[in-house]
From TrEMBL:
Major localisation: mitochondrion
InterPro entries for this protein: SDHAF3/Sdh7 (IPR008381)
One Pfam family linked to the record: Complex1_LYR_2
Primary role: Plays an essential role in the assembly of succinate dehydrogenase (SDH), an enzyme complex (also referred to as respiratory complex II) that is a component of both the tricarboxylic acid (TCA) cycle and the mitochondrial electron transport chain, and which couples the oxidation of succinate to fumarate with the reduction of ubiquinone (coenzyme Q) to ubiquinol. Promotes maturation of the iron-sulfur protein subunit of the SDH catalytic dimer, protecting it from the deleterious effects of oxidants. May act together with SDHAF1.
Keyword terms, alphabetized: Chaperone, Mitochondrion, Transit peptide
Record protein name field: Succinate dehydrogenase assembly factor 3
Keyword Transferase: no
Keyword presence, Mitochondrion: yes
Compartment annotation: Mitochondrion matrix
Gene Ontology cellular-component annotations: mitochondrial intermembrane space; mitochondrial matrix
Lineage: Eukaryota, Metazoa, Chordata, Craniata, Vertebrata
C-alpha cells in the first residue's frame, strides 16, 4: 500500500502543477509555491490526515480543471478562477489554516503584482 500512496501523491502533485499552467502568471507563481509548500508540509502526517489532504487537493484539481474548460469555452475572453468559501467550512479550519488562508489572500490581493505582462517584447531605448 505505501507504494500506491506515494504514486497517488506524486500524480496529484504533478496534475495540480500542470493545471496551474492555465492560470495568469502571477496566480500560477503564487499557486505553484503554495502547492509545493503544502505538499512538503504534509509529507510526514498520519494516514487519516493524509487521506483528508489528498481528498481536498483532488477536489481542488477537479474544480480547477472544470474552470479551465469553462474559461476556454467562454467567449468574453475574461478568465475566472476560484470558488466561494462558505463560513461553515471556514469554521472547520484550524488556527494555522486560517493564518495560511489570510496570508494567501493578502498575497493574492496585493495592489502591486510581482509580475507584469507587456504587449511588446521589443526592448525600449
Amino acid at each position: 500500500m505505501p507504494g500506491q500512496h506515494v504514486s497517488r501523491v506524486r500524480a496529484l502533485y504533478k496534475r495540480v502543477l500542470q493545471l496551474h499552467r492555465v492560470l495568469p502568471p502571477d496566480l500560477k507563481s503564487l499557486g505553484d509555491q503554495y502547492v509545493k509548500d503544502e505538499f512538503r508540509r504534509h509529507k510526514t502526517v498520519g494516514s487519516d490526515e493524509a487521506q483528508r489532504f489528498l481528498q481536498e487537493w483532488e477536489v481542488y484539481a477537479t474544480a480547477l480543471s472544470q474552470q479551465a474548460n469553462e474559461n476556454r469555452q467562454n467567449s468574453t475572453g475574461k478568465a475566472c478562477f476560484g470558488t466561494f468559501l462558505p463560513e461553515e467550512k471556514l469554521n472547520d479550519f484550524r488556527d494555522e489554516q486560517i493564518g495560511q488562508l489570510q496570508e494567501l489572500m493578502q498575497e493574492a490581493t496585493k495592489p502591486n503584482r510581482q509580475f507584469s505582462i507587456s504587449e511588446s517584447t521589443k526592448p525600449k531605448f
